Amino acid sequence: MLSRQASQKIPSMASSSTPKYNSNSLESSSVKRTPKDGTNWEQNEEIPRLPGETRITDKEVIYMCPFNGPIKGRVYITNYRLYLRSVEKESIVILDVPLGVISRIEKMGGASSRGENSYGLDITCKDMRNLRFALKQEGHSRRDIFEVLTKYAFPQSHNLPFFAFVNEEKFSENGWMVYNPMSEYRRQVLSWIHPENQAVIMRCSQPLVGMGGKRNKDDEKYLDIIREANGQISKLTIYDARPNVNAVANKATGGGYESEDAYPNAELFFLDIHNIHVMRESLKKLKDIVYPNVEESHWLSSLESTHWLEHIKLVLTGAIQVADKVSSGKSSVLVHCSDGWDRTAQLTSLAMLMLDSYYRTVVGFEVLVQKEWISFGHKFASRIGHGDKNHADADRSPIFLQFIDCVWQMSKQFPTAFEFNEQFLITILDHLYSCRFGTFLYSCESARDREKVAEKTLSLWSLINSEKAKYINPFYTKELNRALYPVASMRHLELWVNYYIRWNPRIRQQQPNPVEQRYMELLALRDDYVRRLEELQITNNTKISSSSTSSASPSQMVSHVQTHL
């Protein structure tokens, strides 16, 4: 907008002798104990690898498991993952962590440190985990593994490519084809058009009015044209995602908000959603209370002190206002925050999810993410820190995680309205960090075009759409043009335990969900009965056709043939 800031088939394994592996599985990504399979891991055995994944080094370590105590094992480092396998005889413990998940690697203790297991590495992860490995103190045994981990976990800091660029997996679906910008965009900043009342959701960044209250006639005229395009309203509604005080403060740096003098035909509402720094600190507090241990006695007060669910509530409340104004109020709306790529994306995409049932399907949601987040320039590189060792970067923030959390909250309140299940959302978040796919790499389309991401990497949607059955909600009921308005009150919001506390084996909920499992079995039975019924109908029709043909007179048969000729 003028005068505003720019807004912007399960893959085959490397060896047939390797254990079956699925990096999207919750179980395979966490610490797990499995019966001994007889595999000899002392004889140059292979770890499960993706095509294009190469083994770099391995070393004996002691994994300081926060749940089961010290575990002796061997850790393997590839150009994609850290893989630990225990050496105990009774059962096997496996830890499988994509290197892209790692946020920080620190040395623990020194050569002269005393105490058992006081020398090694501390690893902080982006997915709510911390890992600690103890090594032998003799001969600087941790130096090589520290250097290898640092090099491949932070490739952008070492002039190395992301793993996505060397990933050689093959899928039956091409995920890059799910979204076509030319067919999705009607105008540069248009997000959605209501199919009945023609009200629109527009998005942009803050106007650059500054302390002097600068004006731009073209910008003012443009907003008036948007208002006039919808003949059912007298005023355009503008939603500013920020708290009022923050919007006022932005004037000091050249930003600001729409004044009544400059925009007399617009109504402005502030939604009080806090900035990226507040959200980052809130997630840090949440991580402190969920990993490694959950303190039962003060759980509710500890959760409240993080303010995480309060922020979720504010985002959902804002999106509900946008959706309701468009649908019930029949008013076109304009949404912005400071830059137009964080809170703005949350609000527009959630409002579209509430209003349009298409975006509640698997492919529709993929399109929504591609359109409102990736193509509009959410700064994934800065917010996630892909391949960057600067873990303290002030630009990092869980904005996209918050959005997915809001989607999960909606799916809990409307369990039959979404075609996709919880695992679909968790898989998206896992690969937000993993760097296995090119989908979330870089911060804008120009960077992705420059690096030829669509040509040289795979899309996450290729994986999901090639094994779609794994991500289908068995309770889904297709309903067209039904608007969803979730209840955004603290009484109806809950912590997403299966994501935030999934690494704690004492808290993790039963997997798979027995109710969902039984329902899927019933659906399979139904499909089988429908198939048998169709086969019987075909057989019966064939018999009837044969019977009528054999009883027909020669003249009838000739007439019949001639008719078809």
UniProtKB/TrEMBL annotation:
Q: In which compartments does the protein localize?
A: Cell membrane; Cell projection, Filopodium; Cell projection, Ruffle; Cytoplasm, Myofibril, Sarcomere
| Classification via SUPFAM superfamilies | (Phosphotyrosine protein) phosphatases II (SSF52799), PH domain-like (SSF50729)
Q: How does it sit in the membrane?
A: Peripheral membrane protein
Q: What is its EC number?
A: 3.1.3.95
> Alphabetically, which GO biological process terms does the record hold?
mitochondrion distribution; muscle cell cellular homeostasis; negative regulation of autophagosome assembly; phosphatidylinositol dephosphorylation
The record lists the organism as: Alligator sinensis
Q: Name one GO molecular function term.
A: phosphoprotein phosphatase activity
Q: Its encoding gene is what?
A: MTM1
| Catalyzed chemical reaction(s) | a 1,2-diacyl-sn-glycero-3-phospho-(1D-myo-inositol-3,5-bisphosphate) + H2O = a 1,2-diacyl-sn-glycero-3-phospho-(1D-myo-inositol-5-phosphate) + phosphate; 1,2-dihexadecanoyl-sn-glycero-3-phospho-(1D-myo-inositol-3,5-bisphosphate) + H2O = 1,2-dihexadecanoyl-sn-glycero-3-phospho-(1D-myo-inositol-5-phosphate) + phosphate; 1,2-dioctanoyl-sn-glycero-3-phospho-(1-D-myo-inositol-3-phosphate) + H2O = 1,2-dioctanoyl-sn-glycero-3-phospho-(1D-myo-inositol) + phosphate; 1,2-dioctanoyl-sn-glycero-3-phospho-(1D-myo-inositol-3,5-bisphosphate) + H2O = 1,2-dioctanoyl-sn-glycero-3-phospho-(1D-myo-inositol-5-phosphate) + phosphate
Which residues constitute the catalytic centre? Answer: 337
Tell me which residues make up the Tyrosine specific protein phosphatases domain. Answer: 306-353
User: In terms of one coarse class, where is the protein primarily found?
Assistant: membrane
Cellular component terms, GO, for this chain's entry? filopodium; late endosome; plasma membrane; ruffle; sarcomere
Q: Where substrate is bound, by residue?
A: 275-276, 337-343
Show the segment(s) annotated as Disordered: 1-52, 543-565
Compositional bias (Polar residues) at which positions?
A: 1-32
One Pfam family, please name it: GRAM
Q: What is this protein called?
A: Myotubularin
What are the protein's UniProt keywords? Answer: Cell membrane, Cell projection, Cytoplasm, Endosome, Hydrolase, Lipid metabolism, Membrane, Protein phosphatase
What EC class does the entry list?
A: hydrolase
> Could you name the domain of life of the organism this protein comes from?
Eukaryota
- Record's CDD domains? PH-GRAM_MTM1, PTP-MTM1
Q: Which residues form the Myotubularin phosphatase domain?
A: 189-500
Q: Which family does it belong to?
A: Belongs to the protein-tyrosine phosphatase family. Non-receptor class myotubularin subfamily.
Write out the biased-composition intervals (Low complexity): 545-559
